[in-house]
Fold this sequence. Notes:
Elements: H1 29-42, H2 46-59
Helix pairs in contact: 1-2
Amino acid sequence: MRKEYDFSKAKQNPFAKQLKKQITIRLDNTTIDYFKNLSGEYGMPYQNLINIYLRECALLHKKLHIKWSA
């Protein structure tokens, strides 16, 4: 390993804007358990599955149909 590195000619990462952003979100246990069970089937972390699902919703412009009961 070098003692010093020269980054004067370094280029900015072109994919930096595509990186994921960490947030805090509150999900109920049923939802978490559902995605955790799916993660075992697909062999990937449940957080990735939630991200894939939410991305699909965003790309397809899915809307919720919420009916509030009185």
